[in-house]
Amino acid sequence: MNGSARAPADLHPVAGGTAELPMLQGLAEVLAGMLPTGSKLVLHWRDAHGHTGMSAVAGTPEALREQAVAALEGCDQGRHRSRGGTDIEDVWEEAGLRIAVAARSKAPLTDETRSAWLAVARRTVAAALASERSQARIEALVKAQRLQRALYEIADLAGSGLEMPDMLARIHAVVGGLMPAENFYIVLYDDEARTVRFLYFADAMDTFVADPEQALPLSEMSNSLTVALLNHGKPLVGPSEELRSELGVPRDPQHGPDSADWLGVPLLRDGRVCGAIVVQSYDVPSRYSGEEQALLEYVAQHILTALDRKNAQVELENRVRERTRDLQRANDELQAEIVERQRAEQLQRALYRITELSVIAGSLERFYAEVHAIVGELLYARNFYIALMSADGQLLEFPYIVDERDVVSRTRKPAKGLTEYVMFTGEPLLADRARIDALHGEGKVQSVGAHARCWLGVPLVRDDDVVGVIAVQSYTPDIAFTERDQELLTFVAHHIGGSLERKRAQEHIKVAHAELESRVESRTSELAEANRQLRAQIGERVRAEQRLTHQARHDDLTGLPNRAHLIEQLDAAIERARDGDDSRFAMLFLDLDRFKLVNDSIGHASGDDMLIEVGRRISGVLGKHDTVARLGGDEFAVLLERMPSPVHAEEVAAQLLGVLGQPMVVAGRELFPSASIGIALWGPGYERGEELLRDADAAMYRAKSGGRDRSMLFDAQMRAEALRLLDLEADLRRAINREAFEPWMQPIVRLSDGEVVGHEALLRWNHEQQGPLSPDAFIGVGEDNGLIEQVDWLMYRRVFEWLASHEGGGYVSINVSPSHFRSEDFASRLLGLVSACGADPNRLRIEITEVTLLDDAPRALRTLNELRENGVYALLDDFGTGFSALSYLHRFPIQCLKIDRSFVAGLEGESHMESLALIRAILALAATLGIDAVGEGVETAYQSDTLRDLGCVYGQGFLFGHPQPVSPPALHYPDDDAAA
């Protein structure tokens, strides 16, 4: 390679042995046109791989062509030869090509003319080669962009709600946009079961119909080229007949027609073949080259990832649907059981009331009416009557009848009515109009009274003898009785028969008693019932109060004491200790580790089951004087009383960690929970239970930050840290009132010449005692209490005022946290502050992190677009260390990526190769998206040179300057807009 030109490998070398350079093909005519009219010329070249090419003027003699070939093979590069003043010959190297020109002028040339013509010829060839390289780069970029869009679309399809066939059809269309893929299929391979499934099949000539759910044994497809590809495990390309010959696969017509060109690549998962993707052409030989093969191999793994994601999604949806069906079935069974219990309770109450009626004094007419009311609660009884056979068996009496049509009670001789039919057969009768007409036609019954649409009657039995009938009937077709109604009425009639007999006996006794005694008994009965109801109401109210008291002091899920109950117990323990009780006690604060993962993965119901089991295990460890409470979520607290020694609390904490670490089966999965425990021992300095609980909570967070699954004792150091944070918060509030914050500027330079193109404004707090503080010293406190946003706006105003008072072409970037982007009016507020300070928004940049883009993507996009429309561009800070949302990046108006300092620092050390690869990938992505890149944290010349050689244009770090306050000396910017 000479100079900065590319090697011939970049200029379309092909397998046929010629270096195809379209820009040089017509160059002979151009160069000959610079010679006298009628001159002949041959341009001959060879690349580094030995591939040659030639361009000649029409009618050029063969001898001149051979002269150019001989000159190209000779070793006299750069030497000019003249033959008789008309022949010109020259050989030189250009962009990795050896080039020879042989010309025969129509007229003699002077030495000066020949030399000038040769110089022009060389420059013309060099320009053509440069144009060829540019065209090659454009084609490569277009292919890369098309491949990137295809991969994004495949990834989006995997997460879409499309059904599997629709998703695969869309993937087929994506592959078809990259290469010829009219005939395309995907096959999945189970190497353990030795079966294949044609997940997708599209072919213009093969009539095979694929069933994605059908598993085909390999033994039935031994002559299939697809099976040969799965066994071979490597890509195959070429005519299907040649591939079968190469792999020893016999021709089998049932596996489809032969292809003029066949390309198949395996799908690999963890190095094992799990399927294949095949495209084929029936009419175009050599259609698939090495480029199509490499492309299909690359796309195939992304398709496999999409299939895996889609299968996982389908499997999850199936599990959710199955779980939903199970829950629905369980709910239906529960509802049925509830309904059945309610019916049983209703029936039991009815029977109890009927029995009660038989022993309560009152008339038979009232007894019948009460029975009617009770039956009406169980089934439709608007038309109801009781029929009894007289004592001598000669008359059928109707002591009680309520009917919409037969409203007059009657006594008649037995005939052939439905009532007599039930009485004589001794069996219940459920008959609709058709059944009644059929019985009438058989001569078994004769209609008496109004015709019913549906009739239900059951016998009343006394001492195994039928003494009457109880019946209900309907006169409308939309009301019909069921077998269940028959069973219910039969069951009730059995009790009514006995109760009726008892009632009739009471009627005889009642005649013998005086009316006064009857009234006294009636009143006594009413008072007894009222008293019973009153006692029941009092008891129910007492139980309700007890339940409410328990619910107010206990957790609904676990049944453990709640926070209020625990604080009462803790305050009581502190009061006893202050009164001279020498017993020791301590507070343990327990928080489950990664409990959110359980809720997000197997559901909140399973998480509740886990919390119940955790509460049970904790209770099993404690003594009878100890109290365990659930504070909410996955937080528990334990009050240890009457401890023998202070170390007892740590011993109990170790026991709790042990029992909680034992495996637990939840929702069919074996889980291994763990917890972080904070311990606070009581001392005279505590006045309220909340204080002891607070310190235990602080110790728990220290345990969690120390690695989880451990306990930590609250000590003086933690107390000092808590006091320090409290003082720091107070100082921060005072500093906000005093506006004790200022921006410090760090330069951003162009790596090629060190020119400063902009600055990043870094926040500093001018503390009264400690001097300038970086955000690391106070950002945590500011975020916890919400003060950091006030600090940001103070700093922004200082930056904008400085921008307004310092003219220049460079920009200044400010850091914006994700919390600002959650506000709908952030962009308008920021632009309003820029305008109020008189600053130029075109010189302002904002630096955001990847979290900002993912937090609320639509809102972030609206905010960034509004800022960009007003000249404020966005820089993506710390790129590569966050979520790396590449699928979102191209949607947002990002002007620059800032490569994280950890990657730049990694250029020197053991992680050199990894950092080099990551930075190269980030720069390639930035170039593809057409945005700038800034390397952060540049501290050495080696880092700067490496970034520059990789193609990074801008850098920032201590090598170019430390952050400085905005006070004099003034910052200087270049006059050009190189960083815009």
Topology (elements, then pairings):
Blueprint: H1 22-25, H2 27-32, E1 40-46, E2 52-56, H3 62-73, E3 81-83, E4 87-94, E5 97-104, H4 111-158, H5 164-178, E6 183-190, E7 195-202, E8 216-217, H6 225-232, E9 236-238, H7 240-247, E10 261-269, E11 272-281, H8 290-359, H9 364-378, E12 384-389, E13 396-402, E14 411-412, H10 418-425, E15 429-432, H11 433-441, E16 454-462, E17 465-474, H12 483-512, H13 515-553, H14 563-578, E18 584-592, H15 595-602, H16 604-621, E19 627-632, E20 635-643, H17 647-660, E21 664-666, E22 669-671, E23 675-681, H18 689-705, E24 710-713, H19 716-738, E25 741-750, E26 756-767, E27 771-773, H20 779-785, H21 788-805, E28 811-815, H22 818-821, H23 826-837, E29 844-848, H24 850-855, H25 857-869, E30 873-879, H26 886-889, E31 894-899, H27 901-905, H28 912-929, E32 932-935, H29 941-950, E33 954-956, E34 964-965
Helix pairs in contact: 4-5, 4-8, 5-8, 8-9, 8-12, 9-12, 15-16, 16-17, 21-23, 23-25
Structural notes for this entry:
The protein is α+β, with helices and mostly antiparallel strands. It is 47% helix and 21% strand. The chain is built from 29 helices and 34 strands. The strands form six sheets. An eight-stranded mixed beta barrel has the order 25-26-28-29-30-31-32-33, surrounded by five helices. The protein has a six-stranded antiparallel sheet with strand order 8-7-6-11-10-9, with helices on both faces. Strands 14-13-12-17-16-15 form a six-stranded antiparallel sheet, sandwiched between helices. A hairpin with a 4-residue loop joins β6 (183-190) and β7. α4 (111-158) packs antiparallel against α5 and α8 (290-359) runs antiparallel to α9 (364-378). It is flat. The two termini are 35 Å apart. The model is unreliable at 1-17, 76-80 and 968-980 (pLDDT under 50).
